[in-house]
């Protein structure tokens, strides 16, 4: 009877959805309890609310419904008897209403319709009515069975015994019938099957022997010589006779041995005539001594000194003044740790064109032209290079970063490279070398010939339908790494479940950095009992960063999508890994990085003819729109929050075995009818990371030389930032009481129909213990009536968190897990989210917003306001060295703090706030200057981190707030004349002034003295502009002042006044001041227009989204009005504090940075933020209603989708599409 109402493994959210779909009072179901093992939860619907009652076991194993007070409820032997009793009690059962209608499970599981391991099996024929056999035939069969009974099969394996018995029973008879029907020309298929089973061991040994021969050949070959070999088709499935197949394989062994012998002779002869070095490095004897460090082998190469790393050359154009100045050849020498920049007409190397790795400070990518790159050196020299393609620019950046990492003198590494590979082996051992798979050298996003020579620090190999024993497969991987990369690796951990296997190999030099190694497996086959489908996982800590690798094989068949999604949820729920105090949470909240990969079996849902036609044109974009995995992510049904790199390789399933090329075997003939397997990307690699962590995918593709399976292997390579587990600043250990995490307000939106109060649970590795807050006392308005609860916690209900240590480097790498739990005794989680501490040490409140999930399902959202109080330890908050991976940045992210501090006019802060000159107040005026370069290369910004200068959406201006303004007048371009009037520089189109709050915004008069002789910008000024009018705006003011006063850019005096009368010091000129119309951050009495230029990437939300200068004191957030109600602007007044624009650097290579604040140029963290940055906030409900609520999904948005949403304004559509293209370019 329990099958009528018991839902095993169902989540709380899904149970509520089923009851609300039914809709009738008294509908009920029973599910497993998430917090108590062996307990159940009775879910009962009444008046559109779901009431939950725990069913707990006692010490004798009897169960009862938990009750309040001292009343002892009756106990029962099992669940059916309990439910039957309560149904019989009717309305007098002590519950909110009678149990009337049970909700049955969603559907019984059926065996898999598509088994991918029967490719060589003929369909089992249905026996028809047969004629009665003759007596002679019966006698012959009886004699055959009698001979079989006398056989001694004790030394044979069970598979062969079953095969020979089956042949004696009916196989011989089938061959006899086929022989007669075919006139004697048939190849006896049943007998061939018997021989195949008998020779399986020999076949495996021959395959292994051929693989070893291939490895020997790879070792003797020169650079990629074996790629020239033609891949021959294995005769196994081309010959009808197994005897012919084995004879051909033996002949192949003979051929390979003779060819290997000849190759060995060639290598021996060649070795006596040539030197050992394969690559001749440039002669650097002409370089002046002392100009560069002596060459040395870095730690990464000392133990692999025989690794041969070729030089890499890039042809670039050097740009100056926005035009091509001359051409260069850039040669990167990773082995010696330097690169050369040589003109075609100059061959000799000297200190002027040789750049050691430690002299390279920053690589800044141009976002307006993806082929341009700025290279900044330690001597402040800057060069702008234009590469031939964006791919060459990316390869150059990766090689420089890899070079700096390899030659780093730091004892602790701050980043590691990780290889993740997945392959469904199809129960067949590989016949070819694993070289290209392990080197990420194949189709798709692959590594170039230089980076593919460098070994990874961690190798994670996941296989499905494994064909070899674990020991043989481990030895095969080790031999492949030794042959292809000369790398000796250690096996860290292995985990197997039937044909599923995960192996983790590590570079031996990092052995002492690994800890907390765990492994676990989950069965998701029929009834979750069989291991033919499921997952095997391995987790560990690498220094202070945790990793989890999940190798999964999900249900097959395009029609079993829901079963695949259920497999995914079961895997996340049942993997027993991570900290014990977080065992009831989603596994994605237990580790910094979770990798989910394997044969996920998600298919392309289009007709096979159409798919094949599109594959001929390599039209991957339209096919991926019909990919089940992408759609499930978009609809938040599976793998929500996981990332995947762009797919640029052919589908990996289902291909013909032992045949080179992409020949898809899409039709399978079975006894039940033909089955169509549409070519699909079944084998995938995805990852999920905490906010504020660094991870970059550097390769994602497949190889086509391993042909023994109907799947192709997939590889992925990652560079991941590693944090230190230790506190670096020992001074912070002396006093930690002053460091506090203070939450001012938190609001959650929970998907649930239950009505109760909630508490928050805070946990982190930097906290001494798990901390709970008080129950909420009020609720906000629900956006979806009846299915959401919006609890609100205020500062008096939220705890003050005190970390274990006060070291900023340690704390900025930490995260806080916040879980919403019910106030009941079961305390089941209603959702969790993670927020980062990175860039939080400003001392000012910041706003965060995150999505809550629970066991793979989205359960709501959370937002709030908080800050970190440092107190007397502010002086200890000194950030350490930059990370190696920070060397590459976008021009919208990077600024040099020294440039802005030295080149900006000094400000007298005593006049900023009406005489308030306290050090504490002044220290808050430099939020941008105190921070390092941007972290927008960090991924998964589910949490919106804002510094003091960032505005909060819908935050009203209150009396006493400071409103930043920006001087951004138009300016003549390079070849136009500047207007002058009375010896002063006149901004075209600017006249008069208006009172504060007038239409169009306030005006601030600015005195700009200008000698009458200056009518043009200087050549230096022309170089700064680089054809960009935006940078010319501020440049003209600086140029004019420099000519008037003769002051240098580093010592130019500017004294902003609180009354807004002047930004620059008074001049001897008696001409009247010029009124300049500034742009205001906070809307005061008017709506300033949107900027005329289009941003490269959407900015963080402001009110309105207007550009601000880099060093401006923005308004502080008012904690009492964090979630404000509407109020008229007349109720709020604001003071305007004008600020002087910073002088441009020596070479203005970042025009957008000169006029906009660094924080505003980060990528948006949410769709509402992105739309607000575009000035299209009115479309936010439209996007969310149609499911476009994730920044990860936005690159898939196209013009048709925008039209379907109902956006009819053509200019708005173009603005959205332009930003989408920029987002795609930035993620490439």
From TrEMBL:
Region annotation (Disordered) ranges: 106-135, 1044-1068
Chain coiled-coil ranges: 243-270
EC class of the enzyme, as a word: hydrolase
Residue spans of biased composition, Basic and acidic residues class: 122-135
Domain of life: Eukaryota
Any matching Pfam family: C2_SHIP1-2_2nd
One GO location term (cellular component): membrane
Residue ranges with Low complexity bias: 1045-1055
Keyword Cytoplasm in record: yes
GO biological process annotation, one example: adaptive immune response
Feature: compositional bias, Acidic residues: 109-121
Record-annotated SH2 domain positions: 5-103
Protein known as: phosphatidylinositol-3,4,5-trisphosphate 5-phosphatase
